[in-house]
Amino acid sequence: MLSITVDDLKYLLSFAIFLLVAVITGTMANRLRNQAEIARRRETRTSALYALSRKIVAETELDGILKTVVSVVSDTINGEAAIFLPDKNGELIIKAINTIPNSILLNKEETIAARWVYKHGQIAGNGTETLVQAKGLYFPLRIEEKNLGVLAVRPSHPDQNLSTEHRQLIEAFANLTALAVLSLQLTAEAQQARYLTQSEKLRTALFNSISHELRTPLASIMGAVTSLLEEGDIYNQSDRKTLLQTVNEATLRMNRLVGNLLDMARLESGMMQLKSEWCDIQEIIGVALRRMQDLLQQRPVHTDIPVDLSLVKADFALIEQVLVNLLDNALKYSPPDTEIAITVEEIDKEIQIAVQNKGDSIPKTDDQPVLTFGDLTVDLAHRQVIVEGREVKLTPTEYDILKNLALHAGRVLTHRQLLRTIWGADYQDEAHYLRVYIGQLRRKIEPDPTRPKYIITEPGVGYRLVYGE
Q1: Residue 47 resides in a domain
Q2: What is d(CA 306, CA 352) in angstroms, rounded to the nearest whole number?
Q3: How much of the chain, in percent, has pLDDT values that exceed 70?
Q4: Within 13 A of 278's CA, how many CA atoms are on the CB side?
Q5: What is the largest CA-CA distance in the chain?
Q6: What is the mean predicted confidence (pLDDT) over 108-136?
Q7: Same domain, yes or no, for 237 and 293?
Q8: Residue range 326-369, pLDDT digits in tens
Q9: Which CATH number goes with the domain that contains 286?
Q10: By the number of CB atoms within 10 A of the CB, which of 49, 126, 384, 389 ranks highest?
Q11: What pLDDT was estimated at residue 296?
């Protein structure tokens, strides 16, 4: 039997000091070991999160991100992992799961547990005090107050619970996944908003154009009918026929415009489906010419179509409508009695169709001046605008407004003058159009749009371009 005795009482104090030092040293060593272990665990968790974040960044699609997360989580716990996300109807469904046959996480009871976690935003399942009957452990994919889905895990051994370290790591994985999912959702929403904005701008431009196009045939019809009703006695048979022909042509034109509007509405709603079939281009051109024969009576039409032209797979009716629209455009923007040519070429397994007219040529602008207003330069020949040495991109409408102001620099152009010049007489009372575009123009060329030094507003009158400071 071992015992400790002190032969000399004078060594008792030394023994007490040595014992105290040993206890303190052992305590400190144990604390250092614990801190080292905590640091190691933190390093492991940080490395795992960093590795997962790098893999997520490499993915650009939601499915790729979810598969990556499921794979990493499955390897981490050496078990099963799955991610639940809501579908379009708000129902929670499995979007990604590791490839384990007959996974327990696919059971109906487990899906119910996942729905509970998604609804309440709390961790639940095996190893917790909530839904203890569940086989898996469920983590909400939560950002602030918003639940985006659920991450489900289950160790390979049914009786094995996740350690605190593993639970903290999986919870960190869930937070990182939620952030990635939210980022993709916000990106998709922003893209959709841009598409809607562009679509709305295009729709507005189209309907403005179409409203002008509709007024022209309506005015022709009203003028001809009014003449026949009010002053019918002064017209002979030939004049009456001419007026009725005008009404007929205007009616046909309106019919085409309304048909195009209906086709646009069907395209946007998804009701119009392409009916691709093998078509003969020569036959399509023939049908289009027959539809336009009344308007083409006084115009020579030349067609150049190869005899051995291949068939093409297309929607016969829609291609025919395209040709009708092109022919109508060629009629409107070319002098009477000039030729309209339709040529077809087959180049590198593609068929190119061209409808050409002989309209007025675009005047040369090389002799037009370069106008300078301080740091603002307007090159009329090349349609360029330069501010402080850099070229500024303007829309065609913005450029036309600036050009008109530059050509009358120092003078006030009234709202009606600018509206009539840029948009036409039908818009000379639509001052809000001008305010919107002047605002956009100032943001592009003015150093401080709130204190313009080039485009000056004359309240209640219009705008003028000055030479700057």
Answers
A1: no
A2: 12
A3: 86
A4: 3
A5: 151
A6: 88
A7: no
A8: 888 888 777 777 889 999 998 877 888 999 887 655 444 445 57
A9: 3.30.565.10
A10: 126
A11: 83
Q: What is the pLDDT of residues 180-199, one digit of tens each?
A: 888 888 888 888 888 788 77
Tell me, yes or no, whether 16 and 62 share the same domain: no
Does 251 lie in the same domain as 232?
A: yes
Q: Are 292 and 265 contained in the same domain?
A: no
Q: How many domains does the chain have?
A: 5
- 169 and 135 assigned to the same domain: yes
Enumerate helices (H) and strands (E) in the chain, giving the number of each: 10, 17
- Whether the model clears a pTM of 0.85, i.e. scores above it, the answer is no
Amino acid 365: pLDDT = 45
What is the DSSP annotation of 152-216? EEEESSTTPPPPHHHHHHHHHHHHHHHHHHHHHHHHHHHHHHHHHHHHHHHHHHHHHHHHHHHHH
Q: Establish how many alpha carbons lie within 13 A of residue 243's alpha carbon, considering only the half-sphere containing its beta carbon.
A: 17
Do 436 and 402 belong together in one domain? Answer: yes
**Which among 128, 157, 190 is the end of a domain?**
190
Could you count the other beta carbons within 10 Å of the beta carbon of residue 79? 22
Could you tell me if 29 and 73 lie in one domain? no
Instruction: Tell me which residue range forms the domain holding 85.
Output: 55-190
* Cα–Cα distance for residue pair 453/456, rounded to 1 Å: 7
